[in-house]
Amino acid sequence: MRLENTTEKISELLLSDSEWKANNNSLLSGNSGIGLFLAHYYKASGCNKAKNRALEIQKNLLSKLDKFNLRFSDGLSGQLWSYDQIQTLIESDDSYHFTKWLTKNLIIQSNEIVASDQIDFLHGLLGIEQCTYGIKKEEFSSLVDQVLLKQVKIDFRGAFWFESLGEKNVINLGLAHGQAAHLIYLTERLNSTQHSSKFRQLIKEGINFLNFYLSEESLSMFPSYIVKDEPSYPSRLAWCYGDLGIGIAYLKCGKVLTDETIYQKGLEILKHTLQRRERSKSGIVDLGICHGSSGLIQLYEYLHRSTNEACFSECRDYWLDHSLRRLFHNTSTYRAYRGPEEGWIQSNGLLDGLAGIGLVLLSQLFPYLSKWEEMFYLKPIRDGKISVTPSCSDPPTKLADQI
């Protein structure tokens, strides 16, 4: 009952926002995520108020499309993905899929895309590629393939990519901005791309690179990122950075290569996270999807489904209880933590706000409504083939700066 009541309260809070039209439309903290949650809530509950508001938001998204920012986190691709998700859930009259329009227009910019170094998931080409589908998707994905091949570096450690967030010579290892996302993309494209043999080798070399920095005696088995001549610090426990995203990359690489050693190493990495529950060990401060406890709920739920290991469901339950106890403790609103510079700010969005938390809780009640997770590189893991069916805060310098 606690789970149902909390989800209902989230819907009431989001529906009571009379200023929603003045909000931005990003997935990070704006209307795109709110509309997505309300469409799912309508599908689960039949609440017509949620349906009507989701349709209002869907219509509003088209009036404020940011055609100069294509990012998944706060730009055009994220908005259009949300638009199509709402349409699919509510079965609205508008039958035109705007992500097809996005893909078509991206092809026009093919020269600029191939020249880009923006292969980041949340803010670059990998996230945009996830949002595209339709007749032109393969053509756009092929362009992204070329960018990954162009930008990869290989040395004695293995294959890696430099981060494209503005700082030079940073190698990010996480899922939101770095190595884990690149490797998962390679696994998903392995059986579709014309560069299959090159991708297979890059997956092996990419795992070799991660193995070079793996430490079994540290709080986390991997740092958040690598910078030449600078010490490495433990990474937080989260979707965006750290061992969870990297461990999932190992699982997917192991399966697609049919390499049991890589797969078992992934399980070892993921099980190493299970005891990191105190704040000083986890770095968990808020409850959002991107770097908070609701993201852990979804990750451990996904891992339980993918591996059938009971330890992951037990950890999921721990973080579910953690989130429910803290969500509305002494407050009727929700604030996300944006790091030491911005501090705590109210957020109703998907990536770090109330809508995302609600979507995770709703997926616990109605597992058939959890397909949205696939957008976050949480697609089913299969032997030999992976099915094709957020601004995240800057990298911390040490664990204390993550909390």
Structure in words:
The protein is mainly alpha-helical. It has 18 helices and six strands. The chain has helices at 2-15, 31-45, 48-63, 76-90, 98-108, 110-114, 125-131, 137-151, 179-189, 196-213, 243-256, 260-272, 279-282, 293-307, 310-327, 339-342, 354-365, 399-402, and strands at 153-155, 158-160, 170-172, 225-227, 335-337, 344-346. The strands form three sheets. The chain has a two-stranded antiparallel ribbon with strand order 1-2. It is globular. The chain starts with a helix and ends with a helix.
Tag the structure with descriptive keywords.
two-stranded antiparallel sheet, 403 residues, 18 helices, disordered C terminus
Report, as a whole number of angstroms, the end-to-end distance: 31 Å
Spatial order of strands in the largest sheet? 1-2
Number of helices: 18
- Helix share bin: 40-55%
- In sequence order, what are the helices and strands, one letter per element? HHHHHHHHEEEHHEHHHHHEHEHH
Give a short synopsis of this structure.
With 403 residues, the protein is mostly helical.
Describe how the helices and strands are arranged.
Layout: H1 2-15, H2 31-45, H3 48-63, H4 76-90, H5 98-108, H6 110-114, H7 125-131, H8 137-151, E1 153-155, E2 158-160, E3 170-172, H9 179-189, H10 196-213, E4 225-227, H11 243-256, H12 260-272, H13 279-282, H14 293-307, H15 310-327, E5 335-337, H16 339-342, E6 344-346, H17 354-365, H18 399-402
Antiparallel strand pairs: 1-2, 3-4, 5-6
Helix pairs in contact: 1-17, 2-3, 2-4, 2-17, 3-4, 5-8, 9-10, 9-11, 11-12, 14-15, 14-17
